[in-house]
Amino acid sequence: MFYIFFYVLNIFAQGEGKTMPFKKIIIDIEKQHQVSFNYTEDNVAGLQLIPPKKSLSLEQKLQYLAKETNLSFENIGNQFINIYKKEDVSKIICAYVFSSADRKPIENANISLNNKTQIATNSRGYFEFKKEDAAVFLISHIGFITKRIAIDNLDSKNCLQITLDPEITELEEIKTNAILASGISKSKDGSFEIKPKKFGILPGLIEADALQTMQQIPGVNSLDESVSSINVRGGTHDQNLFLWNGIRMYQTGHFFGLISVFNPNLAHTISIYKNGSSAFFGESVSSVVAISSTPETTEKNSFSAGINMINADIYGKYNLSKKSYIEISARKSITDFVETPTYKEYFNKVYQNTTINDFSQNQYQNIDYKSDKKFGFYDATLKFVQKIGLKDQLVLDLITIKDNLQVFQSATTYNAYKAEDNNLRQQNYGGNLSWKRDWNEFNTTKVNIYNSSYELLANQNITTENQIAVQENTVNNNGLNIENNHIINSKFSFNDGYQFDEIGVTNLEQVNTPEFYRKVKDVLRTHALIFEGKYNDTLSRVYFKVGTRINYIEKFKKFIVEPRIQFIYGINKTLNLEVLGELKSQNTQQIIDLQKDYFGIEKRRWIIADNSSIPIERSRQVSVNLFYKKNDWLLDIENFYKRVNGITTASQGFQNQLEFVRMTGDYEVLGTEFLIQKKINHFLTWLSYTYNNNNYHFSNYEFPIFPNNFELTHTVSWAGIYEKNNFKIALGTKWSSGRPKTTPENSQIDVSNPALVYNKPNNANLNIFSQINFSSTYKWQSANGIQYKLGISILNILNRKNAISEFYRVNSFTNSVEEVETFALQRTPNVSFRVSL
Fold it and tell me: What CA–CA distance (Å, rounded) separates 825 from 459?
């Protein structure tokens, strides 16, 4: 008897300690016993009491709380605990909603009461309402069959367990997983989608570098091996739109183009549109590359760190609560500390035929020449996500990118001394604040406010002449995006929105001796209304999406209408017909004033259209595609036509008779892209071929039609990939016909005024480009769950010397015409090591 007395006393006599808010007490209980409480704020508001002892069992604590409060506690399987006011217990209907397929809770299921009130389930599938509010209620969610439940005869003392059956369609769409490599697929809207965390391996790549990976897609090339010069169906790099979490990026490459600025260990989804992009994408006449680092589902805490022969990086994600998390990444070059063989090959590739390299090859060559260089880069990102209630979510994204080069050179000969101190800095900062609200299961709104700031700065100090020359190109881009999504039914949906974009570009040139100063700043503001409708019927195998973008440019008082279309029809279960089309425009472009600007390393500068000498670029494109997949065979054939108007000669990088000529015109591309792929157990092999007929049209020039600088008439790629368990290996080759070049007809050299006489522009071609690449990775895990990954890659295994550009110039010292060639990377190894927790 005494034992029972003291046992009860131990439970209820909790006089030790201070009073605490009731919500803090149950949070502590949740953490200790791994349970979840469900309650309404009205029932617990302002409630405080002395907490129960931690040594008590869960049931003992609930008994204590029930005695000290006017609350009733319903324990469901030691997982969920419902809290009611004792006088309201009989008046509450509560339930959990699960999927019948996998028994997982269904979040944001819509509960419709007969008094027209609507409520939604939380992340655990739970909801509750007063019994008097409805005699019958409906439960619905996209992808599930709606269920009707009558309240009569329900036991209101216990929560219901309700299951919804998935909505089954008779025919499945063609699945296009593992195209080119695991982690790469083709989406229903015609875009290619890359999931870096599921990425397998590609020849020469050991990480899912977004801009290196996309060059494996037929129709995508980089004629100079640079991720800062990606050509999609004959377009220039600046005609592509690169978005990182909604922020337009004006710098895409580290090491002045050899490495992508997007950390491959961060991105969750990369979408690449060659044609038929959504009307919500503007400011681009070529492709769209949209990178999102927001995961589709909640992920657990993680941390990883890695190093290769160019840079080291870290990545971390930490869940601050059930509704918020923070994610960071940082990457920095190791070139400050060590010059690896990879770095040396990159350096030789980047700085050939630049003013920095020319210094050592002038008349002071081989005479007490000294050089000291310092190069480094870094990038960092931060993401913060906060869910607010059941309907709202805030996301903050920040990114910073910087490349910095310092080179000091000097030479002495015959008592003459020459020295140069060169500094080149390129950087891009960006930020985006996003708010998303699910008004109900049929209507969603998303608002983005973003900024992107870019700077390219070159500073040359010729110490012996006391001359300082400065060149600067800056871009400041601010914008607002509003996007609404409306689901009409299971087949129809409609999107509408508004976008405001303000871009300011400044170009500065300054020399102190002789004194010269020029600064030009332009600002352009555009408004856009977007309307887009989608029809998706899996039964008839029809996907149809049509939209339009109506741009208004304030400065020019000009409207531009841009329709877009995506039509996909499943001829049968294995064969799809795809038709894509779009009209697009672009107000900014990159031009080259002089080939030696910014030391010839990053010589392009951003400018804004003036609607006259620098027109608004406009494009139209249509493509027809057949996609076949059956028995692990995949066949993809696409024919396309593309025309871009409003280009300038300054944006095309001419190094012939058109280098200093300023004209406007267009280019026209007709092409075919072909891919065949076969998977045999753990082995995947594919072969791709691309044909391009790409010509300029300059009506005011003596040769109005001639080949485009970026034309690659024939391109062939092959890869063989083997993946089993944690071991992956890939071997592949890329072959292409040489890009166009212009040869001199003859030379007319005059000592006072040397000159070159050229043939018709782009009358010849470089030699064939050919390269074999290799890569392999192996992953293992320790007993304590730590994962390790080792990778090795070799670019250009055969060390072939591939010319990627060729031009001619007059050497004033020898008074002769000389041929200047730029070559691709020689044999370049790389090794990486990564640890993940």
Answer: 28
